[in-house]
Amino acid sequence: MSSEITINQASASTTKHPTLYFEDGNLVIRVKESKVLFNLFRGRCRRASALIFNLVPAEPPSAAASATSAAGYGATPETADHFQEMAQGTASDPLVLSLKFEEFELAAGWMIGELARPISTHQWILLLEAADYLDMAVLRKEAISQLSPHVEVHISPNAKADLRPAHALFLARRYRVHAWLKPSLTGFLSTPPPDLKPEDL
After folding, report:
1. Pairing mode, if any, of strands 36-40 and 15-21?
2. What angle do CA 68, 69, 73 make, to 5 degrees?
3. How many whole angstroms separate alpha carbon 63 and alpha carbon 138?
4. Measured distance between the N- and C-terminal CA atoms of the chain, rounded to whole angstroms
5. What is the CB neighbour count within 10 angstroms for residue 95?
6. Under 8 Å between Cβ of 140 and 132
7. Burial of 76 per CB tally in 10 Å (0-12, 13-18, 19+)
8. Are strands 95-97 and 15-21 parallel, antiparallel or unpaired?
9. 144: closest CA among 186, 172, 118?
10. Angle at 198 between CA 193 and CA 200, to 5 degrees
């Protein structure tokens, strides 16, 4: 996934996330596919994500400064894709990320320490995607650690196999997890042809 970040004017149709919009938060974010706003804590997000650290300042701009910046660049929903340096993360100019809604929702919960556990294998995969996009080294390490037993079933007889070998191989290559390449490739090559599914090919 490309690291595409945009700033769009908040629409009247936006709504607040029921649990991840904090009235005392100071970093407003939404994902491109949704009109749901998250209002998180700038310091925590900047510490957790190198991408956010590089995009937004430590302190939120004043309303006047935010409006002046947006007006100076002439940002509109059509042209905002080209103005990554405009990331303000305010109510009028929320930071817009090209993640799926559930991916960022899980990552936001992790960043503020309110992620419900236990976490399913599917959710860990979503968190790995979010960690890769947001450049969250600690979350990436935890996701890899949690997913590894499901990938390494072919080199560890007691491991749990919730991932098909072909999917594990795809994840290993996409997210550059070299330790997963051997077990996932071994599993894929040892799968009898009748057991292969269309999505494996």
Report:
1. parallel
2. 115
3. 33
4. 21
5. 26
6. yes
7. exposed
8. unpaired
9. 172
10. 70
Query: Which one-letter DSSP state was computed for residue 81?
Result: G
CA distance 99 to 101: 6
d(CA 131, CA 93): 23
What pLDDT tens digit does each residue of the chain (201 aa) get? 444 544 444 455 889 999 999 999 999 999 998 999 999 999 999 999 999 999 988 888 765 455 444 443 334 443 344 333 345 788 888 999 999 999 999 999 999 999 989 999 999 999 999 999 999 999 999 999 999 998 876 544 444 557 788 889 999 999 999 999 988 888 877 766 656 566 555
For the chain, where are the E strands, in sequence order? 5-7, 15-21, 27-31, 36-40, 95-97
Residue 45, both tokens: 């997000």
- CB-facing half-sphere around the CA of 177: CA atoms within 13 A: 28
- Write the secondary structure of 107-161 as one string of H (helix), E (strand) and C (coil): HHHHHCCCCCCCCCHHHHHHHHHHHHHHCCHHHHHHHHHHHHHHHHHHCCCCCCC
Q: Please state the pTM of the whole predicted model.
A: 0.77
Which phi and psi angles does 36 have, rounded to 5°?
-85, 130
Classify each residue of 165-189 as buried b or exposed e, where b means 16 or more C-beta atoms within 10 Å of its C-beta.
Answer: bbbbbbbbeebebeebeebbbbbbe
Query: What angle in degrees, to the nearest 10, is found between the helix axes of 137-151 and 165-174?
Result: 160
